[in-house]
Specification:
elongated; mainly beta; 442 residues; Immunoglobulin-like; six-stranded mixed β-sheet; Hypothetical Protein Tm1070, Chain: A
Length: 442
């Protein structure tokens, strides 16, 4: 005589998905990474619990049939008590299941009783811990607390003799937990401040561009949460010219954000601000030069990063480091040369001349790429001096780019001085045949 479960298994072979134990209605737990990295929350079975594992039955079951619940990405505490409780509570079938075995990754239950002969199809069982009189969520330890770590659960049902009742289907496994970054800080837009060389590099060409915005967003978590009581922003980069908070400085340039004024370090390499509260959705930071020309100083080109430290009320903290915040650069003049032979010693010699009729020296930057697509970039160790003609020789380029053989380049020369003051010229000598002009691109 066939058992109901054997009949269910035969039907499952014809329609695999229909007879599977469905765990798709389970509830996932979302764990916050910051709770772990700060030391606020322990990952040792004492604080974390598994999401609600719910089994919806798709077949007929009888006494002796088993359920095997498997997790990956975490562990059960084998010292705990586990049981399956019948969720429906509708006066129909009441299923009693006893725990046969428990390991770190697997729980084995066997059906020990059914209260009446009503069909078990559609019945729901929920995994619990403790004792049935006072059921609790199942304690868990995660395999990893890194952002993106996942915890999965799957269920297999079988007859007493071990024959599978449900085949692996799309609903018999479920992502029951994951670790996320609860607090996110991004820079949008980044700073693109341009220092005006025509003003002796003491101001920005467009004041409004000397700014960046730190956007804050929070992902909802239900475990290992980190509630922010204080936010500290630290900007790293050149702070010369924004020295209002530096004791003894006559320069009154400022760095000010939504959270208030930033305090510039005495070495002029960083500035920080403490909000004393949770972060605002947007922290807009503006660099402003001293309005008094006599107190202005030369501004430095720099890349900027932001460190954000968040603290909870007990003092535990998390720091998000080196978030790229943009840069400042110099305006100036540049010229492009489409074909420049360089480092062909004894065969071809290339040379350039930069005329600077103004009063501001200009740093010289070279950028280029060769016929193989290799990129080159360097700042020359000398400048285009004000009121002079500066020569850039073949050997200067070869040394700056570290060339070991002859190379053909598309070359860009940039001089950080007022564009109206700068002129460029270029030529090459081919052996003893004389000079040939190198043409600039339009």
């Amino acid at each position: 005589m066939f058992k109901k479960t054997l009949l269910a298994a035969s039907l499952a072979a014809l329609s695999a998905g229909a007879m599977a134990v469905d765990v798709s209605t389970s509830t996932a737990a979302i764990y916050g990474n910051e709770g772990f990295t700060s030391g606020l929350v322990k990952n040792d079975f004492s604080e974390l619990t598994l999401g609600a594992v719910e089994l919806t039955l798709g077949a007929e079951y009888t006494v002796g049939d088993t359920f095997t619940i498997t997790i990956s990405g975490g562990e059960f505490d084998t010292d705990d008590l586990f049981f399956l409780t019948d969720k429906n509570g509708d006066g129909g079938v009441e299923i009693t299941a006893g725990l046969l075995d428990a390991t770190a990754n697997e729980l084995l239950f066997r059906i020990t009783g059914l209260s009446d002969a009503t069909t078990t199809v559609g019945e729901k069982l929920v995994l619990k811990s403790g004792v049935s009189a006072t059921p609790t969520a199942v304690p868990i330890k995660l395999g990893s607390t890194s952002v993106g770590a996942k915890l999965n659960v799957s269920v297999r049902a079988a007859t007493e003799s071990g024959r599978t009742i449900d085949s692996q289907g799309s609903k018999d496994s479920f992502e029951i937990g994951k670790v996320v970054q609860q607090h996110t800080f991004t820079i949008k837009p980044v700073m693109n401040g341009v220092i005006d060389v025509a003003d002796e590099r003491k101001s920005f060409a467009v004041d409004a561009n000397a700014t960046f915005n730190v956007e804050y967003d929070e992902t909802t978590v239900n475990q290992a949460g980190f509630a922010i009581a204080d936010t500290i922003y630290t900007i790293k980069g050149a702070m010369a010219g924004f020295e209002d908070t530096v004791t003894g400085s006559d320069n009154d340039g400022t760095v000010v954000g939504t959270a208030g004024a930033y305090t510039v370090a005495t070495d002029l390499q960083s500035a920080s601000s403490t909000s004393g509260a949770a972060p605002a959705p947007s922290e807009v930071v503006l660099f402003t030069v001293d309005p008094t020309p006599a107190d202005q100083v030369v501004l430095s080109t720099s890349s900027y990063t932001v460190d954000v430290t968040i603290k909870e009320v007990g003092g535990k903290s998390v720091t998000y480091s080196a978030i790229a915040a943009g840069k400042t650069s110099l305006n100036g003049s540049s010229a492009e040369f489409a074909y420049v032979p360089v480092n062909f010693v004894g065969a071809v010699t290339s040379q350039f001349e930069v005329g600077n009729k103004g009063t501001v020296d200009g740093a010289i930057t070279l950028n280029g790429f060769d016929t193989a697509g290799k990129d080159y970039s360097a700042v020359l160790p000398f400048v285009a001096e004000a009121g002079k003609l500066t020569k850039i020789g073949d050997d200067d380029i070869a040394k700056a780019f570290g060339l070991t053989k002859g190379t053909k380049l598309k070359l860009t020369i940039t001089v950080n001085a007022p564009s109206d003051d700068i002129t460029f010229g270029g030529y090459s000598n081919r052996g003893t045949t004389g000079r040939m002009s190198l043409q600039q691109e339009d």
